[in-house]
Design a protein that fits this description.
The protein has 313 residues and is α/β, with parallel strands linked by helices. It has eleven helices and eleven strands.
Length: 313
Amino acid sequence: MDRTHERYHELIERARSVRPTVTAVAHPCDESSLRGAVDAARAGLIEPVLVGPAGRIREVAASCGLDISMYRQIDASFSQDSAARAVGVVRNAQAEAVMKGSLHTDELMGEVVKRETGLRTARRISHCFVLDVPGHPEPLIITDAAVNIAPTLADKVHIVQNAIDLVRDLGAPEARVAILSAMETINPDVPSTLEAAALCKMADRGQITGGVLDGPLALDNAIDPEAARIKHIVSPVAGRANVLVVPDLEAGNMLAKSLTFLAGADAAGIVLGAKVPLILTSRADSLIARLASCAVATLLVDARRSRTQRAVA
């Protein structure tokens, strides 16, 4: 199976052309998470700040032959303390992104969403997988498959807008958003079809901006032009979607993992809607997926820098 992942290599090369993102790495206390941060630094994607039990991090580095002497380190007592201190580094304007280490996602997100000391904004926080699927012509974004378990219609407005902004910040010419369901017709007995119709109308009314929406769409007629043609679905999205909005976390998780384990895809993970991008990686991720996650975050940060500079000018 083709594993060249040209789309990811293009993302990584683009990210290497901009300034590395200073990234607070929360609790990199196993080989997988520490090596991921070091590899991304060596690739010129991030400038890591290692936040966690200093002695333990040094032990891990020594056991796997990693030189971390050139990276800033902030001592923390345990995993939740690591998460809190990593968030604090961002709040003190000493980092532009957060990267998950060897702690539970819930521990990190618990600190991120705290009202007084976290990184919340007016947006709902949501997760995007940016998948490089062998044979597919462009990266495919799936949202939300990791944060929002059973999102409401109001939540999905933020989920869709976060994904559209991601596509635009990554430099794609157009965000084509498919609101997925099990069918492409509206059925009052299937709530996801009603929500899809509502989201599309909200986009028509300017409540969601920057992208083209269509739904409900089944997966086949969202990404396959021939399937859309056979079903007589004519829209700018059908058959060529680059964003797939799933009904709930379970559907998204199954879809992303099906593409990963059955179609040979790699999945970069990024959390949006907070004050800075949050890089979520898994111990099962390949090196290219880890680097792509960091590349996505760096491109987002660079896009935000550019907007800030234009606003000041």
